[in-house]
Design a protein that fits this description.
By secondary structure, the protein is α/β, with parallel strands linked by helices. It has 3 helices and 9 strands. Strands 4-3-2-5-6-7 form a 6-stranded mixed sheet. The chain has a 3-stranded antiparallel sheet with strand order 1-9-8. The structure holds 1-O-pyrophosphono-5-O-phosphono-alpha-D-ribofuranose. 1-O-pyrophosphono-5-O-phosphono-alpha-D-ribofuranose binds next to β2, β5 and α3.
Length: 191
């Protein structure tokens, strides 16, 4: 695949068809698990916005959505630091079945923090759906309820995931090789 910068190489890891199929399956599973209930999805900006917009259309229930955003304290990467909220929810989630929707679970720090913050808001239930998971990179215990794909410890972009804010618009999920790259490459060097 052609990359925006000549020195950066992209290799497809997950094709758009495979992603589409898996997101459909996840939507069906969620619809079955919450049959007859109202559901509230919370997307973690910005990466999860693409996944969430596809996932929500595969859910056959009454469903609403909101977004939340986080950043890390004084560190250049989220994976190395503590997390803080930069955009809170717009609406109350009290009494709602909620699902936190992520594009990727890496160290687990973001979701771990958000689970703590959100459970204080008294949702009826709180689950986690992530399209991608790098289980080998966890530094904190997180048990996602819905996982699209387990992936190796490679730096991935596309379908919402960025490198320096680029590549979010790729339909496939690709491994990005940077010039002089030493593998394996940690994921969150996005900022
Ligand atoms: C990515 C991803 C998750 C987080 C996962 O966000 O979208 O929110 O990192 O990493 P963790 O499990 O190590 O906490 P990123 O910092 O790239 O922000 P973005 O979604 O705005 O691109």
């Amino acid at each position: 695949m052609k990359s925006a910068r000549k020195s950066e190489q992209l290799k497809i890891l997950l094709r758009r068809r495979a992603i589409e199929q898996r997101v459909r399956q996840m939507g069906r599973q969620i619809s079955a698990d919450f049959r007859g209930e109202r559901l509230h999805l919370i997307g973690v900006l910005k990466g999860a916005s693409i996944f969430l917009s596809d996932l929500i259309r595969e859910i056959r229930l009454e469903v609403s959505l909101d977004f939340i955003a986080v950043a890390s304290y004084g560190q250049s990467t989220r994976s190395s630091g503590q997390v803080r909220l930069t955009k809170d929810l717009d609406n109350s989630i009290e009494g709602l079945h909620t699902i936190l929707v992520e594009d990727i679970l890496d160290t687990g720090r973001t979701i771990n923090y958000l689970q703590r913050v959100i459970s204080q808001r008294k949702p009826r239930s709180l689950h986690v759906a992530t399209l991608l998971s790098k289980s080998g990179r966890r530094v904190t215990e997180v048990r996602p309820d819905y996982v699209g794909f387990e992936i190796p410890n490679e730096f991935v972009v596309g379908y919402g995931l960025d490198y320096a804010e680029r590549y979010r618009n790729l339909r496939d999920i690709c491994i990005l090789k940077l010039p002089g790259d030493v593998q394996p490459h940690p994921q969150p060097i996005h900022r």
